[in-house]
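Training component of the fellowship. As part of building independent skills, the fellow (R.M.) carried out the full modelling exercise for a liganded target. The chosen ligand was S-adenosylmethionine. The inputs are recorded below so that the supervisory panel can assess the work.
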Amino acid sequence: MADHVRRLSTEKNVAQVHSFHSFIRSTDADDKSKVATLYDDWTSYDEDVQKVAYKGPSESGVMVSQYCKDKSISILDCGSGTGLVGEVLYPHGFKNVTALDISQKSLDIAKAKGVYSRLICTQAGKHQMPFEENEFDALVCVGCFIPGHMNQEVFPDWLRVVKPGGYIFLIMRTSYLQEGEFKGQFDQAIQTHVDAKRWVKVEARVIPEYFDMFEGVGFVFKVLIVDKRLEDL
Ligand SMILES: C[S@@+](CC[C@H](N)C(=O)[O-])C[C@H]1O[C@@H](n2cnc3c(N)ncnc32)[C@H](O)[C@@H]1O
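Fellow's submitted model of the complex:
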C-alpha cells in the first residue's frame, strides 16, 4: 500500500483527507496508471469522505431527480469510483445506471453494492468512451473534475453519448475552477458549446459545505445537438 494511503487509513482524520487532496491534485492527467493506482490503493475511500461530510453524491440524487422524472432512463456515472453516486440514485428509483471509472478496484467495490447495471473500466477524456452515440439519457460526473484527473476535454465525448434533450450533471469543488487546467479554460469550453448550440447551461447551483468547509458547484446542461458529427470539436 502506498505511504499516503497507509497514513490515511491508519490516522483517519479530516486533516489527513485534506492532505490527501493536496496529493491527488499533483497527479498527471496524462498518466493513466498514476490516477488509477491512486484510487486502486485508496480502499478506505468511502469512510474517509464520509468524515468530511462529502455532499457530492447526495446532491447528485437531488439534481437528477429534479430534472429526470422518468426513472427508467439510462444514466452514465462518469468517474463512478466506488459507487457512492449509484448508491444514492438507486433508491431514488434510477436502476439503469452504467458506471465508468479508470480504477478497476474502485469498480469492484461499486459492483458489490449492486446498484449499477454495467461497469466499465476505462479512461474518459483522452479517447472516446466505448459507447454509441446517444446511448444515454443523462450523464452524471461527481467529484472528478480535480486537477490531474478529468477536465473539460471530456465535453465533446459527453455530448456524443448523451441524447439531444438529455441532461448532463457536473458537480465539483468551486475553488478548482481557478486552478491548473481549469483556470479560464473550463468556462471557455462551456461557452464554446453554448455558442455552437450543442448544449444550454441550465444552472450552476451553489453547494455550501460540499466537502468539509469547501463550497461546491453543480452544473446542469441540456444537450441540444442532433447532428453528432463532432470532428470539429
Ligand atoms: C474523487 S473520486 C469521485 C468518485 C465518485 N464520483 C464520488 O463522488 O465518490 C474521482 C474518481 O475519478 C476517477 N477518474 C479520474 N480521472 C478519470 C478519468 N480520466 N477517466 C475515468 N475515471 C477517472 C478516479 O479513478 C476516481 O474514482
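The panel noted the following from the submitted structure. Residues 35, 39, 56-57, 79-81, 84-85, 101-103, 106, 123-125, 142-144, 149-150 surround S-adenosylmethionine (CB under 6 Å). Residues 83 and 110 are 4 Å apart (CA to CA).
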